[in-house]
Amino acid sequence: CAIACTVDDYFALHWLNVSPLANRFPQFRGPIAAAQVLMNVSRTIIGIADHTAWNWRRRWEVCVARACTLLLSDALSERDCFEDLRTVASELVPARLPNSLLKRRMRVPEAFRCQDMAHQDIIALIERFCAFCPPPDQPTVIVGLRTAGAYFATLMAEYLKMRHWPQVSCFSIRPKNGVTGWEKQQLRGAAKQGARVLVVDDYPSTGGTIRMALGILERFAIGLERTVVLAPTHPTQPNWIQLAEIDDRIRVFTMNARDLHKNVLLAPNVVESLCKEYYAPDGCEEARVLQDQSLDELNAELARHSKDGHHVREKRVFALQLSGADGEKATKKVVFKSVGWGWLGYHAYIAGTRLKGLVPPVIGLRNGLLVSEWVDAAPVTTATRAEAREYMINVLASYVAARARRLPLTGDCYLESRTYRWTGSDEILDILRTAYGPYLKRLKTPALRKQLQKYVTALPTLVDGKMRRDEWIYTQTGVYKADFEHHNFGGGEPDIVDPAYDLAAAVFEFGLSKEAEQELVQIYQQESNDTSIGERILLHKILYGTMVMRHALDSIGLRKDSENNSARYHDARNFLIYSMNEFCAKLVGGTKPLRWSDSLFFLDLDGVFDQDLLGFPHATQSGLQSLALLRAAGFSVVLNTGRSVQHVRHYCDSYGLSGGIAEFGAVFVDAVNQREVPLTAGVPAEQLGRCREAIKKLPGVFTDPDYEYSIRAYRYKGRATIGLERRELETFLRTPEFRHLRCICRGPDSYIVQKRTSKAAALRFVRQQVRTTKTPITAIGDCQYDIEMLKAAEFAYAPGNCSRSVRQLAKQGKCRIVKERFQNGLLAAVRHRLCVEGAPSAVELLKSPDGLMQTLLKAADHRIV
Fold first, then answer.
1. Closest by alpha carbon to 679, among 664, 658, 657?
2. What predicted TM-score, i.e. pTM, was given to this entire model?
């Protein structure tokens, strides 16, 4: 079935149709038409070359049917069925198939890989159908929805044939990709013959795939009364029939997760028999499952956890009493975990045995269930928590290094182009190519994919894929990784093969400092001999942080644990910003300033030094050159931003800035003298504290914990944040207890600050603090909240992307607008200011070993918007 699905997807590839571009660009109608003709000719030639493969695929259908017959056979006919299968397969193996087909990878069927299903469950599902629907006079056509549905369809078809149903056939489609010419032919034939059509698939999530499949049947005039849907029901989505909008005239047959075959295998008598066999070499003659209230509660909690998503596996913990021939009894705890059916579960046993000492001891693998010793966690006290944190750096590094050494992946791990399912490789490409802008990014994708190849496949490994804190078991004797085999690979997973992904995840999940991260990478490098890890980890930080943000936003949209998911979104965004800051700071070089300069340059962040291109704010090549020029000319750079004080602290520390003003003038961070001066105090500060608690009680409102001297509030809408309505905030602040506060309303968020704080007031305060009242001040900003700051500076600049209100200020002669936009505008402003001073206006940045990221930062300054 895996081979059949892979070949079907190969023939289902859609060629690009460029003819619609002629309507958008009529001046290029001739070249576009010629290009389309050339592509059509190429398609025809390749189609002729694939004719042999097409015939082979039709013959392979017989081989798949024989394999299903073997699964359905009894003990008496099993050997004959196997010999029949071997004969058919041996005739097809020598065939010469196109290299482009041979290079394709099979799609892992989620039902048998990570959803606890076995082939017995497919048989049980079709038996439910047969119990209510007798064999019809007309043909029966089973349509499997690839990938898992294709496995279901063939097995169900062979089952019906063995039950002597007349005229049974099957084929598969992938509704999200449309239908091929051959699939259309099968559907037309089913409609013409008046066949009963069975649509089969694994656990539906949103019901969208089944809805699309039913829409396809309707377009081919297959009546609703002749359509049947067969699919299991997962605890995560018990209402999939309603979500799929299935018409009442369509009969639906389903089964619940509790009825699966693996639950039968977890019955106490079956567990006792299996464990007796496992422990026989140790002298065990009898194994008996004991009643244990604590384990009953644990198993009940594991059962509730199954509702968290389709990826959650069946787990069951048992207490055993083992009896030997000498009458001695011993008690053990074991855990049974579903890891995949047939060969789709072998990786779990291989990983568990090769990671001995780092994961709970593996006992065996049988019937898709991995059996391991249950390890009870020891409580971690407050006194040992700090020590455990330091210890975990070694554990994390050694664990990832052990996987790199003991679980290497061989074969072709090429970063292939996307065909059906979105993977982590596609995610990396999609993130990074945005640096080229909306027009060039598509043209740059092939070259970028090739460039990424050496990064993401440098050390192909069966990575873990999930490094969260709750994935680790802390005991008195050591720390063990709990779920070590089922993340990262398979449907809905990123399919990443680089250990750098696990390291990046560990840095985020454990909140490691810059120094702790350096220690983690150093230990890993020593134990794995992975010399290029430093060049690759930033890419995987960007990937992991982006995926955490998106998952958190999706969960908030579904109203799943909104508070915790909002915190994860916030932490992931900071993780991305800080990681990129540390990378960019290395390109600028230099040391932290020891004293304040007489020349101050006040710098806004968003839209001036930073730009949100990769999904979070970060600098570009021009911004870094600006910083290097100012530093070389002896300027003290001072941030003046609406960002949080925590962000300003990090920017000052990473880039070696003299200081910064945060939260719209609410606090001054003096990095030179290692101090922090709040510009809010007294009654207004007290009102701000009460307001913070009150605003959290508004429906759907979240606040940013990084804001200590003001309030940033927002709601979530889709995959973005939105600010509160101005009228809502003004009404909220109208009460006497908040009379010293005012609001700043923007699109993505809203702010509440003291009435007397502003960027301009903070600029004047800093000027007095560093005693530069007679030296000209320089400032650059781009929006209405920067206007007063620009007025307070002797040299005021704005980039070409500035707001209309700043342009009005420029018309009054109080600000110079450079024609360049964003970071290019900052660089132009800096060069103009340095020309006035007679200072050099060019400087070279340091080279980074990660040439790809530096190239992207440079490309971001030349993007066509």
1. 664
2. 0.90
Question: Crossing angle of helices 851-860/562-588, nearest 10°?
Answer: 100
Q: How far is the C-alpha of 739 from the C-alpha of 752, rounded, in Å? A: 12
DSSP strand pairing (251-253 vs 227-230):
parallel
Per the structure block, which two tokens stand in for 114?
Answer: 């990570």
Q: Copy the structure tokens of residue 133.
A: 């629907």
Query: What distance in Å separates the CA atoms of residue 195 and residue 206, rounded to the nearest whole number?
Result: 28
CB half-sphere exposure, 466, CA atoms < 13 A: 14
In this structure, are residues 68 and 42 in contact, taking their beta carbons and an 8 Å threshold? no
The strand order across the sheet containing 816-817 reads 675-678, 667-670, 659-662, 636-640, 600-603, 777-780, 795-798, 816-817
One-letter amino acid at 626 equals S
CB 317 within 8 Å of CB 299: yes
Q: List all residues 6 or more positions away from 376 whose beta carbon is below 8 Å from its beta carbon.
A: 333, 475
Strand residues in 707-842 grouped as ranges (E): 711-717, 720-722, 741-745, 750-754, 777-780, 795-798, 816-817
Burial of 701 (C-beta count, 10 Å sphere; 0-12/13-18/19+): middle
Structure tokens at 16: 């690009």
Please provide the DSSP assignment of 38-52 as one string: HHHHHHHHHHHHTHH
Q: Is 321 helix (H, G, I), strand (E, B) or coil?
A: strand
**Chain-centroid distance, C-alpha 452:** 18
| Tens-place pLDDT, residues 636-661 | 999 999 999 999 999 999 999 999 99
Are 363 and 373 contacting, i.e. CB atoms less than 8 angstroms apart? yes
Tokens representing residue 258 in the block: 């509790």
Q: How many residues does this entry show for the chain? A: 865
Three-class HEC string of 586-605? HHHCCCCCCCCCCCEEEECC
CB-based contact 407:462 (threshold 8 Å): yes
Angle at 131 between CA 130 and CA 137, to 5 degrees: 45
CA-atom Rg of the chain in angstroms: 32
Residue closest to 173 by CA, chosen among 225, 109, 118, 216: 216
Neighbours of 118 (CB within 10 A): 21
Task: Residue 677: name the closest of 691, 663, 656 by CA.
Answer: 663
User: Which letter does DSSP use for residue 558 in this model?
Assistant: T
Q: Answer whether 266's CB lies under 8 Å from 316's CB.
A: yes
Cα angle: 4, vertex 8, 11; to 5 degrees: 145
Question: Which residue, among 366, 484, 834, has the nearest Cα to 626 in the 3D structure?
Answer: 834
Provide the 8-state DSSP code for 793.
S
- Give me the residue label for tokens 């530069």: 772
- Extract the tokens encoding 347: 């990786």
Contacts of 694-697 with C-beta under 8 Å, sequence gap 24+, read: 694/732, 695/732, 695/752
Q: Is the pLDDT of residue 240 over 70?
A: yes
Residues 6+ apart with CB under 8 A from 767: 600, 773, 777
d(CA 241, CA 680): 57
The string of DSSP codes covering 597-635 is -S-EEEE-TBTTTBEESSSSEE--HHHHHHHHHHHHTTP
Q: 408 phi and psi, to 5 degrees?
A: -70, 150
Q: What is the pLDDT of residue 307?
A: 73
**3-state DSSP of 238-306:** CCHHHHCCCCCCCEEECCEHHHCHHHHHCCHHHHHHHHHHHHHHHCEEEEEEECCHHHHHHHHHHHHHH
pLDDT in tens, 684-699: 788 999 999 999 999 9
* Over residues 530-552, mean pLDDT: 93
Closest CA to 776 of 635, 640, 671, 613: 635
CA distances to 4, 453, 496 from 414, in Å: 22, 7, 11
Chain segment 658-673, per-residue pLDDT in tens: 999 999 999 999 999 9
Q: How far apart are alpha carbons 286 and 276 in whole angstroms?
A: 6
C-alpha to C-alpha distance for 751 and 724, rounded to whole angstroms:
9
